[in-house]
Write a structure and sequence with these properties.
- With about 150 residues, the protein is an alpha/beta fold.
- The chain is built from nine helices and five strands; from the N terminus they run E-H-H-E-H-H-E-H-H-H-E-H-E-H.
- Strand 4, helix 8 and strand 5 (about 130-135) form a beta-alpha-beta unit.
- The radius of gyration is 15 Å and the shape is globular.
- The termini are far apart.
């Protein structure tokens, strides 16, 4: 059934919230039910570096069994990086995004929606035209402020 759902690029912080079973875990799991969750090359790298307790590692392994990997980055990802980087600069926080610039670039290059809890990543996604999903109300409020500033 997941193969018939639209793919969504899931950010590291959403996976981490689910694995940690925090206040956002169940709401993000519900939000993900409408999508086929996928991971960019860069999210895979961030997750590989994570240090989990035994219980969390088991939860993490079970979760990853349900996720698909996106194709490795290519020239389109590099072109998209230029766009994403410019959007982040226009918002004033390119340096704070780090690898999220590449996560967003691969997401943009593949034309996928993006699911994250990171305010700056969501605001950058909005600026560059990536469809996004988040439970971060503060990020959504800031997006409204960003839009008002552009008018």
């Amino acid at each position: 059934m997941a193969d018939s759902l639209q793919r969504v690029s899931v950010d590291t912080n959403v996976v981490s919230s689910i694995v940690r079973d925090n206040a956002y875990s169940a709401p993000y799991l519900r939000l993900l039910q409408s999508f086929a969750p996928t991971l960019t090359y860069f999210v895979r790298g961030e997750l590989a570096a994570a240090k989990w307790s035994q219980r969390r590692q088991e939860r993490f392994d079970a979760l990853l069994a349900e996720y698909r990997y996106l194709p490795d980055p290519d020239e389109q990802t590099i072109d998209a990086y230029v766009q994403v980087s410019a959007a982040a600069v226009s918002l004033g926080f390119e340096a704070s995004l780090g690898s999220d610039l590449w996560i967003l670039a691969q997401t943009l290059a593949l034309g996928l929606p993006f699911m994250s809890h990171d305010s700056n990543a969501i605001r950058t996604a909005e600026r560059v035209g990536i469809d996004y999903r988040t439970l971060n109300r503060r990020a959504l409020d800031r997006i409204e402020q960003d839009r008002a500033a552009l008018r």
